[in-house]
Recover the amino acids of this structure.
């Protein structure tokens, strides 16, 4: 890739890091890598985040196509969050940064 | 790792993504992965960035221990920027996110 190809790509990559750098976002992705979770399950795992902020973070991740929200027609109705393929592959890539952090931070 | 171990780590990881998400930071790391560069060389490769901002970005990366600034006692004196081991390994980890971005963005 030439620098002219690389620059627009890195501009997009910056936005991803900006999102992932927001409080709790990377951890949410990390937790969802394991398996889909309900809102209440996510909140049990990360009680430090307010429900309002958790809702906002999930919405941001959904808008970027990284997670999907599925309403499961049971009684009572269940809402489940899971990573899309795009989100799962990002989560795996972020795993390399997490390993780096375990070594260096 | 338990969630109690993971949370402080992810808090640190967020700061890394916050830094990498700043305009031009990831590209600077990417360029330095190839080989050490002088300030003027970096500015030639990324003329879109002002010299003032390039200086600020390099200082931020240096403060995080990701790059080092070496003054080479030649005539005229040369200042060269290179990645530390910590910075190189982060750059390699970020490469996985770049590959993800090439596929998905």
């Amino acid at each position: 890739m030439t620098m002219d190809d690389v620059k627009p790509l890195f501009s997009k990559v910056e936005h991803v890091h900006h999102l992932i750098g927001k409080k709790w976002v990377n951890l949410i992705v990390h937790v969802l890598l394991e398996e889909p979770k309900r809102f209440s399950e996510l909140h049990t795992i990360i009680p430090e985040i307010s429900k309002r902020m958790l809702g906002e973070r999930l919405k941001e991740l959904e808008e970027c196509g990284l997670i999907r929200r599925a309403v499961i027609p049971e009684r009572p109705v269940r809402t489940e969050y899971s990573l899309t393929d795009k989100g799962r592959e990002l989560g795996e890539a972020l795993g390399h940064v997490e390993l780096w952090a375990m070594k260096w931070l």
Helices of chain B lie at 3-20, 25-34, 39-45, 51-63, 85-104. The domain at 3-104 of chain B is CATH 1.10.10.10 (Arc Repressor Mutant, subunit A). Strands of chain B lie at 37-38, 67-72, 78-83.
